[in-house]
């Protein structure tokens, strides 16, 4: 059922009336949409300390240290929220998987005709967010993206399981489809490729997010969290990137 805002208003308006006024009105048949109240007050605590003096000079090295540590306890540490935006500033966010961290930045793979890729082509500014509940850690990255080379995309694509390779061909990611349409296309492609190798689609590949800002967050009791932020000081293509490292208020 679709509820228009004016109907929703008329359903909830009686909440503003006094009990006497309420008793005079027939409201028994009115449905009041329940509120969702979330009252948990999680306390974040870790024995670790994060300071500007105990982090590595380069944020990518700090990220690798935290990622290696998270691997032992966090279910899927490579899951990260990628935020993009249209040129006029309308944001959108979704989870993608980190596949590689090289000396320049963070690499993930996707369909180049998807909503995220269209937005990235028009506006290369993007952000990544990791949240690792098990270790009370968050990492935020802001920067610009570039496409990885064709060779890098092919190398990764060919390392994927067969089903994922066919799936990439079957899905025109982010387009509107009929129920079962993608599965049908997948079945046809499965037959067509048969025993042959599955080529890397031209419309599929990797993006590298080159950071300008990286923040490490460690959860502490009473919301007195540790936050350490790196801000890039020189051009992203300089040989030895230099960073300002500062503590931020929680
Ligand atoms: C855990 C998880 C991992 C995902 N990994 C990827 C990924 O690596 N690449 C990708 O294109 N979509 C991935 N997705 C799907 C995206 O969240 C999203 O639905 C899809 O990319 C379409 O987004 P868009 O329409 O904004 O382009 C993943 C989703 C989840 C929940």
From TrEMBL:
Organism of derivation: Sistotremastrum niveocremeum HHB9708
One annotated GO molecular function: FMN binding
GO biological process: pyridoxine biosynthetic process
Top-level class of the enzyme under EC nomenclature: oxidoreductase
Domain of life of the source: Eukaryota
Gene3D superfamilies: Electron Transport, Fmn-binding Protein, Chain A (2.30.110.10)
Cofactor dependency: FMN
InterPro entries in the cross-refs: Pyridox_Oxase, Pyridox_Oxase_CS, Pyridox_Oxase_N, Pyridoxamine_oxidase_dimer_C, Split_barrel_FMN-bd
Pathway: Cofactor metabolism; pyridoxal 5'-phosphate salvage; pyridoxal 5'-phosphate from pyridoxine 5'-phosphate: step 1/1; Cofactor metabolism; pyridoxal 5'-phosphate salvage; pyridoxal 5'-phosphate from pyridoxamine 5'-phosphate: step 1/1
EC numbers on record: 1.4.3.5
Name of the featured protein: pyridoxal 5'-phosphate synthase
Keywords for this protein: Flavoprotein, FMN, Oxidoreductase
Residue span(s) of domain Pyridoxamine 5'-phosphate oxidase N-terminal: 68-177
Domain Pyridoxine 5'-phosphate oxidase dimerisation C-terminal: 204-250
Signal sequence coordinates: none
Lineage, uppermost ranks: Eukaryota, Fungi, Dikarya, Basidiomycota, Agaricomycotina
């Amino acid at each position: 059922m679709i509820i228009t805002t004016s109907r929703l208003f008329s359903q909830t308006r009686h909440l503003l009336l006094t009990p006497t006024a309420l008793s005079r009105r027939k409201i028994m048949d009115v449905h009041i949409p329940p509120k969702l109240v979330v009252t948990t007050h999680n306390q974040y605590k870790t024995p670790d300390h994060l300071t500007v003096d105990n982090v590595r000079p380069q944020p990518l090295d700090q990220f690798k240290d935290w990622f290696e540590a998270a691997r032992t306890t966090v279910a899927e540490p490579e899951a990260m929220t990628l935020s993009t935006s249209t040129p006029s500033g309308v944001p959108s966010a979704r989870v993608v998987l980190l596949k590689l961290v090289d000396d320049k930045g963070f690499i993930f793979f996707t369909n180049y005709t998807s909503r995220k890729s269209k937005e990235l082509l028009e506006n290369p500014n993007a952000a990544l967010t990791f949240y690792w509940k098990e270790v009370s850690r968050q990492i935020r990255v802001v920067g610009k993206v570039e496409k990885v080379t064709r060779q890098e995309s092919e190398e990764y694509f060919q390392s994927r399981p067969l089903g994922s390779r066919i799936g990439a061909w079957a899905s025109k990611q982010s387009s509107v489809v009929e129920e079962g349409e993608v599965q049908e296309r997948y079945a046809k492609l499965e037959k067509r490729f048969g025993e042959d190798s599955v080529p890397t689609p031209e419309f599929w590949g990797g993006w590298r997010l080159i950071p300008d800002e990286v923040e490490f967050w460690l959860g502490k009791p009473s919301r007195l969290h540790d936050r350490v932020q790196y801000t890039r000081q020189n051009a992203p293509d300089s040989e030895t990137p230099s960073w300002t490292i500062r503590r931020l208020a929680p």
